[in-house]
Structure formats: structure tokens, C-alpha cells
């Protein structure tokens, strides 16, 4: 076991006893990744930040239900994804139009914090993905960026397996066509 895993385990033990410094340290280690995960789903930086905060609160209050502390990161990410999907579904039902589609907004490039962010191709693909239908964009983000398999996407989006495969296939084709048009 690496020292990082041991360190996380010790921090989580302290978090279970409501140690605020340990909670802050856990927050500082995971907040960027969790924010980016939420942002890719809800496509609104303020909502993504709120969802991230709520997810951390949920995680800290339900930490006793976590059986394997080595899985904390994946468990936290699942909480963020579930909260993001719940918000996405809520806004989709209300037919809200994101403010970004109504007025011009300068992008803040907080989407991906990895070395690949500097790649113009990645930026272009992510920009084109935002122009896809909302369910296509969400499905592709979950599958290609977040790494979820079809079964998990079915559960998250509450669709059948066949619908999921068809949607992702059509989303990929739509993305290919839009990329060819803009190339």
C-alpha cells in the first residue's frame, strides 16, 4: 500500500470524527476533479460548484457507510455524478435554457485540468461536443470522458441498454459529422 493511500485512510478516519482540518485536506485533494466532473455534466460553472460542495457534504456525513476507504475517490465521484445527473434531469424537465446559449460568455477553460487541455484538438472536440443534443453530449461525456460503461450509463440516464447503445452510436456519428464540417 502506498503512503498516499495510508494518508487518505488516516484522513478519512479523522473525517469520521468531524476533524475539519482533515475534511479540508480531503476537499483540497479532490475538489478540482469533482468540479470538472460536475461541469462536464451540468455545463454551468456555478451549478457545478454547488453540486461539488453538496457532494462533499454528503460524503462527509455518510462517510460511515463507506466500507473500503481505498475506494473513496470513486465513491465521491459517483456521488458527484449522481447529483449532477439529478440536476441535469431536473433542468431538462423544466426546459431551462442555459444562459450561455442566450448571451455571449467568455469560456473560463475549467473543463479539464490535465496536460491534454493545451491540445487544440481536445479543445475543439469538447467545443463541438457542447453543440450536440443534450442527451448525446451527456452520453458521450459519461462514456468517453468519465469512462462509464453502457450499463452504468443506462442506470444514470434511466434508459434501456439498447437505447443507450443506439444513443451513443448516434452521438458519435453526429460528433464525427460536425467535426468534419468544422475541419
Automatic annotation (TrEMBL):
Gene Ontology molecular function terms on file: DNA binding; sigma factor activity
Protein name: Sigma-70 family RNA polymerase sigma factor
Keywords for the protein's UniProt record, in alphabetical order: Sigma factor, Transcription, Transcription regulation
Keyword Transcription assigned: yes
Protein family according to the UniProt entry: Belongs to the sigma-70 factor family. ECF subfamily.
UniProt-listed GO biological process terms: DNA-templated transcription initiation
Pfam families: Sigma70_r2, Sigma70_r4_2
SUPFAM superfamilies: Sigma2 domain of RNA polymerase sigma factors (SSF88946), Sigma3 and sigma4 domains of RNA polymerase sigma factors (SSF88659)
Domain RNA polymerase sigma factor 70 region 4 type: 125-175
UniProt keyword Transcription present: yes
Residue ranges of domain RNA polymerase sigma-70 region in the record: 26-92
